[in-house]
Design goal:
Strand content: 5-15%
Number of helices: 15
Keywords: Transcription, Transcription regulation
Pfam families: DJ-1_PfpI (PF01965), HTH_18 (PF12833)
Structural class: alpha/beta
Strand order of the largest sheet: 2-1-5-6-10-9
Number of strands: 10
Mean pLDDT: 87
Distance between the termini: 29 Å
InterPro entries: Class_I_gatase-like, DJ-1/PfpI, Homeodomain-like_sf, HTH_AraC, INH-QAR
Oligomer: single chain
CATH architecture of the largest domain: 3-Layer(aba) Sandwich
Organism: Streptomyces ovatisporus
Protein name: GlxA family transcriptional regulator
Radius of gyration: 21 Å
Number of domains: 2
CATH topology of the largest domain: Rossmann fold
Order of helices and strands: EHHEEEEHEHEHEEEHHHHHHHHHH
Helix content: 40-55%
Length: 324
Amino acid sequence: MHRVVVLALDGVYPFELGIPHRVFGTARGLYEVVTCSVDGRPVRSDSDFEIAVEHGPEVLRTAETVVIPPYDVGRASPELGEPVAEALALIPRDARVVSICTGAFVLAAAGRLDGRPAATHWALAARFRRLFPYVDLDADVLFIDDGDVLTSAGAAAGMDVCLHLVRKDHGAEVANEVARCCVVPPWRDGGQAQFIPHPVPEATAAGTAATRQWALERLHLPLTLADLAGHAGMSLRTFARRFRDEVGMSPGRWLIQQRVVRARQLLEGSDLSVDQVAGKVGFATAASLRRHLHAAIGVSPLAYRRTFRATEGEAGTRELDRAG
């Protein structure tokens, strides 16, 4: 089993602390999840109780993936305390490291994010940038996968990034099973922009949800902004504005994202050729599919298919062919 070690710090948020076990622990017994603190003693949560953990920092030496849940941001500092620094130093160099929400502050203070893209909760973006100007923070996304380091936004984004890893390790079927058990979507559209406070639309105003569903059923067609706005019964300008308010991205970008998601499903679960997959999801050519898939996840269609057609034992360890 792939060992996931969760490092609980003082001030930890109890809900997010449980996310790794809830997600990875539901994945067909493919992961072992253990929790530790920097000294093996109970940790104070951000609520009115302490949390006892089974392990001390020595288990970090055995980790293949380490998850750092969020903690009270009032404790955040540009430098790590000695116990935390010593604990992080035990993590194997080839282990993946994942942060949820304010856990990114810990990775940044450890220098793990210098010059790299990272995510954290949108409400903390300004403070994060002040403390860690050498990190390429993107406060609009739900999570960022930068290979050996993954960072995510607030609580629900912790579910997103863990489900993403299950999918990356073992494919869509297993990730979808886990999502159903957790009663959460296997993939969420958009980024954090949809959760940042905006003026509330008038109660009588139409939304774009029905049109999004309509478009998902017609991804194979060359849909235009005019098609979408016409279905919604709005002007082009009104539709584009309302769509961005609700989804956090433009209609065109959303369509490409949905086509890539559907293409990934077909590459994983069908024997269709790359040309056929491109046609099924609305990309004009196989070259267009290759370009958009590579932009989204850094691999070619054939490399992606090879990864997810690997044997179960290989699927958890094979790296995506980023040169494909």
